[in-house]
Design a protein that fits this description.
The protein is α/β, with parallel strands linked by helices. It has two domains: 4-220, 3-Layer(aba) Sandwich (Rossmann fold), CATH 3.40.50.1820; 229-349. The protein is built from 15 helices and nine strands. The protein is globular and about 65 Å long. This is Alpha/beta hydrolase. InterPro entries: AB_hydrolase_fold.
Amino acid sequence: MPSLKTAPSVASHGLEVKLQSGGRSGVLMIVFSQVRIPSGKFGLERLFAKTQHSCVFLNDIQSQWYLRAEQDIDRAIDDAIAQENPERVVYYGASMGAYGALMTGLRRQDGEIFAFSPELSLGMAGSQSAAYLECPAPEKADLLALLSGSMKYPVHILFGLFDWIDMTGYLAMQRLPHCEKRFCYGVAGPHALHDQLYSLNIVRQLIKTFQRDISELLSARGLLITPSLADCTKFVGLGQALAENAPMYLPDVSRSLSDNPGYGLLRAEHFALQGKPQRGAELLQEWDIALKDDAVLKTTPKRWRKSFLIRAAELYLSCAERAKAQEALTDCVAQFPIDERMLQLAAELEFVLPETQ
């Protein structure tokens, strides 16, 4: 395993860097942290703690999607390459980290890229980047333009197609011209896709040597899905309309889209806006049952699955169905760890939460 970890160094633009040196695999990992990782910490650092690869960990502690930090990022990578003399460079990240991995890897063209759930267009209403970015992304940060060009090394992008923002990126990728080194995977999961694939041991199989075919790993667990462009468009359209408070209607959809729990979440919000919160809550409870019973759906992260019952309780409370709200919350506590949102609901209901199992 790597023998040396340097103390984190601080560059400009809120970028922190840490080198984990001495890997014996010949691979240098460039690992970009996701959002909300505090100063002195690095996303996915524990995942790579015992790896045979050397690693450069990067963290944008201001959560600005690594924008305007290219010089500092390049300096950290160039210094690591000079010291480690790797045979291969691999860029890696999830969510905000996926954006950093893609932007840097595509710009430098010196290594393979693995990006989990990136936002391809920053600042969309309803997205994480819109909530954090202090100013618009510069034109040179257009990932779709970079992904449309030629590339020297393989680029692997995975999207959780139970999330409408991820679906937006997947849809945009399907419309790009063909490129033999660019691979896009639609996965049966939410935005927290990396967490899901870690729990299923897919991530560990991938990162051990980076020689495994990721599509085979996903297919073996029934996770690869290929929705039609029409379904993608309808899903994204409803998500955008809800995020922008725009007029909307629910079109007729295919069975595959109606079986998408992410679309079910949006439908529940649409019912609530139509003045039918109870119908939305009932739909979310139906989805909770489906998530428990389906072999693939039950592999999704707990914090995402419990959002169905929490939101159901909130919708019941909004229409004064207190008993049903308590029932949904009780069911949630029986399945999942208690969090602040659940405690707040219990306080509003003046309801003592039962002990967790």
